[in-house]
Amino acid sequence: MIDPQCSGGSNNPASACNRVRDTSDTGTNKSLGTLSLRRRFTNKTGLPVTQLRFRLVDITTKPAPAGTADLRVLSSGTVTLTRVDGTTVVVQGTTLETPPAQAMGGGLNSALVVTIPGGVLAPNAPIDVQLVSGVEQGGSFRFLVNVEAVTGTGVNRLGGNGAKLTAPMKPSVLPAPPNDETKATQTPARVQPYVLLPLARAAAAATSEKTKKARTRTRTRAAHARKSQP
């Protein structure tokens, strides 16, 4: 929480409460105002974080039935807010990630990116952010995010410049495939192909093989019998 004394909601846009409903901030994709969720996130990766984003994994949005909120994820700016005890705090805004262009605002699987002050969030350091959605229809709502972080490790696991993506404790992307030069130097494995026969042909082939073996055994016994005669 940004303000431990205000863990609930507020209608005051200048407050640092967890959830702020501003009905005066209207416009495109926010006909009924905005809903701002304000949270403090702490870097627990054990590594410096250089990029941070929040991916929507569940949200109530268009089309929404009656009684369910229609939320549109929007970009927001950095603001200075006031806690209940009178102290102020700077809360970082977030930007709706593009492409693709999202003329109706963000929805499921959209991502909000925050610019980290100074470019690096040290281990165990906190950052205060706000995630803003426009409200097109009131009602109950869901708004769930996964936190994705790029950590500067000095180990190239993505084929890039020594960074990896985590969300937040395990990799959220696969390692990059080998480049063309690597592919060219690899020796392709030899694969023994399989030949599939229709059932009838397979059965006939098996019967024919058994018949050949039986005839061979008969000829062998007959030859032995001739040799044993006086």
Describe the structure.
The protein is elongated, with a radius of gyration of 33 Å. It is built from 2 helices and 12 strands. Helix content is 16%, strand content 31%. The protein folds into 2 domains: 167 residues, no CATH class; 33 residues. A hairpin with a 5-residue loop joins β6 and β7. With 230 residues, the protein is of the alpha+beta class. About 21% of the residues have low confidence. The strands form 3 sheets. The chain has a 5-stranded mixed β-sheet, with no helix packed on it.
Task: Report the strand count.
Answer: 12
Order the strands across the largest sheet as they lie in space. Answer: 1-2-3-10-5
- Provide the β-strand percentage band: 25-35%
Rough outline:
elongated
Query: What is the succession of H and E elements?
Result: EEEEEEEEEEEEHH
| Largest sheet composition | 5 strands, mixed
